[in-house]
Each structure stands twice: as structure tokens, then as C-alpha cells.
Amino acid sequence: MHPSVVLLSGGVDSAVTLAYAQQQGAECYALSIDYGQRHRAELAAAARISRERGAQHRVVRLDLRAFGGSALTSDAIDVPNASAALHGGVPITYVPARNTIFLSLALAWAEVLKAPYIYIGANAVDYSGYPDCRPEYLAAFQSMADLATKVALDGARIVIEAPLLHLSKARIIELGLGLGLDFAATVSCYQPDALGRACGTCDACAIRRRGFEEAGVADPTRYQPGLV
Length: 228
Known about the structure:
By secondary structure, the protein is of the alpha/beta class. It has helices spanning 12-23, 41-53, 82-85, 98-113, 135-148, 150-153, 169-178, 203-215; strands spanning 2-7, 26-34, 56-61, 117-119, 159-161.
């Protein structure tokens, strides 16, 4: 087995990525970031998934609320419903530089662990239009990692793996089911309640629900009362 760092938010994509990495023979070190997001439900989900999958789990805390600029890091900005999120280019749920920050932290841990791989659940098909989920962004980060690390100077490499990059949400769900993943343990919603139940109206909920529908699989998501 080879050590690998897996960015684990607690949602569908990152959970499937963790399961996929394990299938590839990785000893997984799951990294979650407490960045001041609206809720703790996804962090609780990440911890639960790590336990269920037997992965080592670490949470790094930093405060992106100090900058704001996103509905996920500022209480002054409302989370839009799914239809509103589709208009106007990059939605207000985009957190400035989030994946750059997360991948940089993963790169630091990977170098300490002597891990040759970092796994990220970035997706460029069924996603919200975030610029840091594009293939060209990940290629650029890989180029930076090849220049910025001691391990690279020593002739080795830390490879950024994004196995879900070109898959639809339905295909991702099918892959996860084949890997024995319990999707009921995951949280995708941008604004769940205190019990972790999904709002059913945000962009993340809409994409998740459509994925289960297109995969022909019953949606195990727990929704807030009055939602189906």
C-alpha cells in the first residue's frame, strides 16, 4: 500500500474519491478543512465516512470568514436556490481560492508523509461552475507542485489525482455504489439544519438529487420536514 492524501469534504464526490483511492491500493489520509463554512454537518460526515472506511482523518482549521466573499463564508450573503444559482456565471457559493488553499495544505501533508498521490473529488461535468474544478486549473496546480516541493527537487513527484473529473453525477454515484459506499453518510447541502438534514433547494441539493434520479437509485438523503 502507498500513502495518499485525500481531500474529504463529506459530500458525494469526495467520499467516492476516498473509496476509489482505497481500491487503487492507497493507505488513505483523509484531510478535511474547517474553513468557517456555514455548518458543521459536512465535517461530521467526513469524520463518519473516515471511520467507516478505515481511513486516518485530520481536520485543519483556518478562517476564510475573515475574507468573506461567498455565501458559504458570510452570513450576510444568502445561499441562492438552484434556479438562481444557474444565472450570472460563477455563483455566489464559490469560495475564493478554496481549492488552491486546500490542495496546498494537502501538498504539505503529502510531502511530510512521503505520499506520492493527492486525491481530490473535483468534477467538471455536474458541478456549479467553479473555476477551480476545471482540468486546466488542476494541470496548472500540478505544474506548480512539480516546482515547489523538495520531493520534486529530489527527483520524485506528488501527483494530483482527480478520478471523477469527467464523470457525470449519476456515474459517480454508480461508481460509489460499486465500491460499497453508504451515501446516506454523506452531506452535500450548502445549508443543512442542525440535524444535518438537507434543505432540498440549493444548487448542491439539486445536483445531488438529479444524480440519484439519473442513476436510477433511491435517494438516501435526509431532507428537512416537508421536503421530498
